[in-house]
Amino acid sequence: MNRNFRALSATAAAVAITLALSGCAALFSTDAGPAESTPTNEQVSNDLDPFYSQVLQWDDCGDGLQCTEATAPLDYADPAAGDVSLALVRHVATGGDRVGSLLVNPGGPGGSGYDFIKDSLDFATDATLQASFDVVGFDPRGVGRSSAVSCYDSADMDEYIYGLTSAERGTDAWIAELAASSDAFAAACAEQTGPLLGTVDTQSAARDLDLLRAVLGDTHLNYLGFSYGTYLGATYAKLFPEKVGRLVLDGAVDPSTSNFEVTKTQAVGFENALRAYLTDCLAGEDCPFRGSVDSAMATIGALLESVDNSPITATDGRQLGGNALLTAIIYPLYQATAWPQLSTMLDSVLHGSAEAAFQFADAYNGRDDDGNYSDNSTESFMAINCIDYAYNADPTLMRAQAAELEAAAPVIGKFMSFGDIGCANWPYKFIGERSEIHAAGAAPILVVGTTNDPATPYVWAQQLAEQLDSGSLVTYAGEGHTAYNKSNSCVNDAVDSYLVDGIVPASDPQC
Known about the structure:
Rossmann fold; two-stranded antiparallel ribbon; alpha/beta; about 40% helix
């Protein structure tokens, strides 16, 4: 039985979820563009003026891209307490009618916007946006190349993510093992990261967005956020409604939803996506299952239980338990184009091999073939989520919630329960409450939702579009996580027309 696991939520970066994405050939400008960005003249507090008045120096970082670092205060309430570094990369607009900068966040929390643009520009944006905007990727505070959360070396991270418990799942002894592991991880994060760990909350990151907007030379923020990036964008709109330019929030998170409701809604979403995969699989060839969708779901449930009780040993010595297998199943469910690979992986596990499952789980967790973690996505994911939500450490309540999860999602709900343990004793606590965001006075904001999005279910897009005073919903009827530049021309046209020309759909185009 797997000991600790990275919570499965709306938080996989868009660049990390697309198995079909490889060797992206981007359309790069041959014109290097301006070497500097001059900040706009704004009324800011004297304490923040040194940050808002900084001038970015851009360097050529290959492939037609430019890179730089910006400096932000560690604590906006006390700007003199220190600062953090924010890494940026940009692709300068290729057309003659430049609108401005477009800041892009791929999700997570913990996803690297820097890598998203540097490695996957054409996946993040189409040629229309690249012509009209300087497309800017950035690593939020705590993430990647910016001032980053640091906790464990690779060996300790392996044990934290993939280690096994000795106690039976759900027992007091099992909870105690998980709590001990989580507490050790939290203590390591606090020791290795220092005061930054307490300032990686989304509100601080949204204040960084406004700083970046200003030093990039824009009077208003133009922004494309996916998954968790929608919460970051909505938080910006809440804090700076008068600075909202054109915001696209794709794969929306409902900001008012509690941690448990997030997990429950996602459990149902992933279970529905699993059923959609099986419907497609059973109708085609080379499907490892036979019979009905219900019987195939039962087989997957039995497989999860089997490896949870009797893990399969991989060639590198790691053991595949229930939680690691669930991660491997969920990873390709983010995009329907990856369903054939999911069939291959499940077939291999049914035949007693753990290799393909670990390849998927490792890809999700940012682990390379040499056993090294190529980024800090797991660490920053935990650090940001632990300070963005409220958690409980009451075993009675956690067991009641586990039963509710299993009732809502009978196959996978069991393996998504007890997630509060990871953050219950985090050194920095959530302050305030999760509530609706209305962003009164903001310019129109475009919210994009996919009807069978497993990670950020469609109902959240509906709820966010309704909450926002100026929200406008674009629906994509289909499978997969997020829709822009990976669904159809209807979605792309709506997003492009809005970002480039400011045209808001008169009604939901129902793409």
